[in-house]
Amino acid sequence: MRLDKFLANNNIGTRTEVKKLVKAGRVKVGDIVAKDSGMIIDENNDCITVDGKPIIYEAFYYIMLNKPSGFVCSAHEKGENSILQLIHEDYRNKLYPVGRLDKDTTGLVVLTNDGAMTHELLSPAKHVDKMYYVTLLKPLKSGDKEKFESGLDIGDDKPTKPAKLVPISDNICNVIIHEGRFHQIKRMFEALDNEVVALKRLKMKNLELDESLGLGEYRRLTEAEIEDLKNNK
Ligand code: URA
C-alpha cells in the first residue's frame, strides 16, 4: 500500500496533509525517514511512525455495544441521542451499526466499518438468526409458540417467516427471528393480542452479548468472533 494512503486511512490527515508531513521528515518507515509519500510500504509488517508515534494499521473495526434504552441506532453521531455518542471519538466517525434496534430496545449492537460484512449479515437471503429476550404485558397463551412457527400477519404484504418462541416464564420468553422488519417482534406480539414491555437483543448469528458489559459499554470483537460473523455458514 502507498504510504500516503496508509496514513490517510489511519486518519493522520488528508493525502495533501500527509504529503506535507512526509516532506517535513516527520514520518519514518522502520528506522528510515520516508522521503516519498508514494512509497510502497508493507502495512502488516513495517513499523510506521509519525513524530516517533507508531501508527497501528487497522483497516476495519468491529465493536459490540450493549445498547441502553433511549438511544437511536443512527449512522450519524449528530442525530438525536445517537448510539455513536457512546463510542470514543477516535472510532465514532468510522463506525455504523449493523442493523437497527428501536430506541427503547436494549442489548447487542454490532458496529463496524466493514461494508461487506454488514451486507452479508443484513441480507434477507442469509437468514441470520437474531435472538431477543422479551418481557410481555400479559402471559403467553397456549398456541403462541405454534403461531410464531407458522408465521403471523403483522399488516405487511407477506406474513412473517417462521420464528421460534421459547417460553421462560408466564410473561417472559426468548424469540429467534431471521428477518429484520420494522418493530417486528412488537408487531408479532400485537398480532397475538399481547404487548412487549421490554426487549433486549441477546444474540446475532453466533455472537452473544457479553453480559459483563454494562448498559452503554462496548468492547472490540475478538478475532474468533469476527471470523465467525464473516463465516458464510
Ligand atoms: N423487533 C422490535 O420490535 N424491535 C426491535 O428493536 C428489534 C426487533
Fold and architecture overview:
- By secondary structure, the chain is α+β, with helices and mostly antiparallel strands.
- The protein folds into three domains: 3-54, RNA-binding S4 domain (Structural Genomics Hypothetical 15.5 Kd Protein In mrcA-pckA Intergenic Region, Chain A), CATH 3.10.290; 60-127 and 209-233, 2-Layer Sandwich (Alpha-Beta Plaits); 129-204, Alpha-Beta Plaits.
- The chain is 21% helix and 24% strand.
- The protein contains seven helices and 13 strands.
- The chain has helices spanning 3-9, 15-23, 89-92, 115-122, 144-150, 184-190, 223-230; strands at 27-29, 32-33, 48-50, 53-54, 62-67, 96-97, 106-112, 130-136, 164-167, 172-177, 196-204, 207-208, 218-220.
- The strands form two sheets. Strands 5, 6, 7, 8, 9, 10, 11, 12 and 13 form a nine-stranded mixed β-sheet that branches. A four-stranded antiparallel β-sheet has the order 2-1-3-4, with no helix packed on it.
- Strand 11 (196-204) and strand 12 form a beta hairpin.
- The radius of gyration is 22 Å and the shape is elongated.
- The mean pLDDT is 93.
- The chain binds uracil (URA).
